[in-house]
Description:
The protein is an alpha+beta fold. The protein has two helices and five strands, in the order H-E-E-E-E-E-H.
Amino acid sequence: xxxxxxxxxxxxxxxxxxxxxxxxxxxxxxxxxxxxxxxxxxxxxxxxxxxxxxxxxxxxxxxxxxxxxxxxxxxxxxxxxxxxxxxxxxxxxxxxxxxxxxxxxxxxxxxxxxxxxxxxxxxxxxxxxxxxxxxxxxxxxxxxxxxxxxxxxxxxxxxxxxxxxxxxxxxxxxxxxxxxxxxxxxxxxxxxxx
Length: 194
């Protein structure tokens, strides 16, 4: 195990007579990559999160509940004795009148065994198309945070991967220069390696 000294902050920028140009370039690459990573991640996460939250808020304002009537009896039984319980939800066809006055129909989740003509709630968008119930404000915050976090991580990974590739290339160039210098000065010591 190698012995290590105390951790030195900002060691890449300290004066050192052995520091090469490649070391200074790598120091600036590391600083630039981390700065760009933080900036891109925060910008992407914030932008996507706000966009999602605005879209969900718009849905809460624009989507409206309407009363629909079941066209036929819903499958299942209403009693809990050996059959389907009343709390189970099944798909059934219902009809409603849209805001523009046109008749619409679609599949809705309703309690099992509901009779034909039973009123049920259907959510529609401004064009009268059937949609799901809009999310609450707290659900919108959570969804926006999660989607924004995924976008931030995804966007921040791009500068990290690019910086890693650039550092690998700098390291390969440094090793090539070291090999060239070693092959030039190694024989002067009276013995060769390899």
